[in-house]
Structures are given as structure tokens and as C-alpha cells.
């Protein structure tokens, strides 16, 4: 793996434009403003469902893989570890874990710290009611043995350095060599500039990336197998305001595989 | 159409058991209790999405119908009228309208009365932000001209007689002969006993029924084309408590076509 700067691909034509970190934050505020009227739990549910659907497509269960038409899929016995951060990215992970359980997977949630934040508290209750184990930490070895790992640690708001215990969790994820599906942003990456070989925590190379609402600038550095877009809830006024150029979702699909 | 009592089919074996009106109400309270921790906006989003997905399957858009594999589908130019009641059933309709708009349909919402209730107020803001017309009333003729109509007037809580203006709206829906997709319960039906020929408002015969969580007892009287189940969010503790016997959803599907 080379340094971040060598990843730049200015000449490649894509079906999407990236949404800057600043615009992503403002777009989020807009969605929850009285003008657009969305609620956090509501959009987190759609985002987490999209992540679960992308994982079900990328890592189909062995028992159901016969009916899967994707040639690039790799089958799964269903053991998935979801590593959650303290913010909304972690909330998306909690929702995804619940839907994956309903799809027949065997998820385990890593939630490192107690929280008083809503909707996280409710999402943890829901996950436990779904009989999903919730643990505080996870070893590199356990991550290695999982079929795949969902990285729901940091999202589009990430800046600076990860704090403990998330720094060590990121390093474990990277060293484990596990197949990682990152939610919105590969955790530890600079949201604009992408990975950084000079930093231990910033070297994650996910197998699958699920961008939410719109890909962030760092997504051009994604070198994994499948890049999905989810979060099919953007009203036209928002798309116009942020000049979003996104591919059209097919039919009633909640996710789309990007090129 | 004969009287309700002649509809009984005690001998037919089904893949599901019905949930009584009383149990449906208690199950709903349980989901939102601290034990299970769900939120109204969250589950309404999943329920409304399921309704939209069922409509997209039952009435595929002409432009996208090539890829639709269902032989019993009838294509649609996408003009759909969603008639909403004042409660949670109406809320499911508002969510469905928004998703259908995102799927490429041209929905129009009939919302007869101003409301101060959340989450309805926010859902109306979201629908308007999606540039969906919201009107207070609708004529029998307009209903007739729609490709299909979503009946989101009354749900599992309905008892007694419908009040104005919903009584007249139900009569218009019935007289229009429109293809109707009912959300959870065909509006005007007794939740347990089903339709009643002796009452003008209780004669609706929907083309499609989308049961949510579990079919209600009246669903055995459904004589339409397709009966779906949606609301794939029931934790095992709830399923056990109410002895739910439901078919397994395939893969990551949010709806299942019942037999």
C-alpha cells in the first residue's frame, strides 16, 4: 500500500460526485431542520437497513447463496462482528446488526463504552431484545475468526486522532486481516484525504464500503471489492442545494452498487 | 358479495395465525415499552417502507415492469392516491407515499384534517419536501382515475363507526371501483369479523392487503389478488409472548407474499 497522495485518480469518470465533510455536516442539519422534518431514529433506521442489505448482498449466507445472482459475492456462515463507535455511525451499526439478525446472521456487537445518548440507548435495548450479544471489547483473534466485520466506528464527522479505546480497536481490525465492511467512511481515514500509511490507525482497507446519502471525498481511495450507496431518502430540495450528482437507484432497491 | 359470516373458512390451512385486536394493541405497547425500546417513527418507517415495497411489487411501473418477474402483477403508470386516516395507519400511508415517490411513482396524499400530532406533522413536512401534493379531500371520480389507491384510513385499532369525513371517503373508495391496497386492515371492516354487507362503509374489497407484524383475524375474508406481510422487526421475545406463527421472510426481503 502506498501513501494517500498516490491514490488520487483525477482522470477517472464516475457516476457520482463526492460530498465534502463540511457539506455532509450541513446536509445532516438540514434533514433534521423544520424545513425537511426528518428524525434521527427514522433516518438511522433506513441507513442501518441499507448497511445490512449491502452486507447480505456482499456476504450472502451459505444456505441462501444459491439464489444470489452476484458473481462477485463471497458466501458467509453468518458470524459477523459489528464494531460501533459512540456516535451516529455506531448507531447505524446497531441498526444493521438487528436487521442482519432478522436475515439469519449471527451478529455480535462491540460497544466499548456505556452511553446515556439517545437513540443509542434504545438501539442497544433493541439489539439485546433481538438476543444479539453486546460486548465491550474484542480481540484481534476474534475479529480474524469472524466471517466479516462491520466497521461502524467513525463517520463523516471524524477529525483528528481516534481516542482510546477506539485507536486500539482500529489497529486490531487492520491487523486481523478480517474482511471489513465500512459504514460511510473507513474508520481512521481522513474524510477528505483518505488513508494515511504514516499512521497506524489510518491504514484500514475495507473489503466493502457502504456510502450513505452520497460518497465522501475519501471514497475515491477505496480499493475493495464492492462500493455501495445507501440512504435513499434525500428530498429533491436537498439534492439541488448540494448539487448532488448520484446514480439512480433501480426500482425499489434501497442500495445501489457503484462503479 | 355475501354477508360476513359466509366468508368463514375454518378448514383451510394457512401459513400464519391471526393476531387478535386485543393482542395487536398490547403487542404495540410492548414494542414501545422500555423492555423492547422501539420508537414510533422508527417502526412506522419500516411499516410504511413495507407498504411501498408491496405496492411496487403489486403495481410495477410500466417503465420498470420488464424486470419484474411476478406473473400476477398489473403494471402502473404510477398515479397513486394515498387516503390517510388521523392515526398511525395514516402515518404508515405518509411514509409509503414518500418511498413510492422515491421509487418513481406520482403519489398524491389525501389528509382530511390538520393535525398537531407527532409524528404525523413531521411526516407531512417530509412528504411536502418530497414535492408530493397533499390535499384535504378527493372525489370518487379522481379515485377512479388513479392507477391504484392506498387505503391508510383505519388500522387494527378501529372500532365502532367511522366519523366524518372518513365515512364519506370510505364510501367514495368503495363506489369508485378503484384498485385499492389496504394497509393492515381494510378500512371500515371489523378487525375481527371482517366486512359487513349491511353497512355502506364496511364493504371495501381491496385488491391488495399488506398485513403488518401479523395478519389480523379479518384477513381471512380478504378476496383480493395479493396478500403481503410486512413489518419485519418482531423480536423473538414478542413472537414467543404472542405465540406468533408466521412464515419466514426470504433472505433480506422486507415483505413476503402470503398464500
From TrEMBL, chains A, B:
Q: Which GO terms describe its molecular function?
A: metal ion binding; NAD(P)HX epimerase activity; nucleotide binding
Which branch of life, at top level? Eukaryota
Record InterPro entries: YjeF_N_dom (IPR004443), YjeF_N_dom_sf (IPR036652), YJEFN_prot_NAXE-like (IPR032976)
Q: Name the reaction it catalyses.
A: (6R)-NADPHX = (6S)-NADPHX; (6R)-NADHX = (6S)-NADHX
Residues annotated for (6S)-NADPHX binding in this entry: 88-92, 155-161, 184
Cofactor binding remark = Binds 1 potassium ion per subunit.
Provide the binding site for K(+).
Answer: 89, 151, 187
Cofactor(s) the protein needs: K(+)
Domain named YjeF N-terminal: residues? 24-246
| Family statement | Belongs to the NnrE/AIBP family.
* UniProt-recorded name of the protein: NAD(P)H-hydrate epimerase
State the organism named in the record: Capsaspora owczarzaki (strain ATCC 30864)
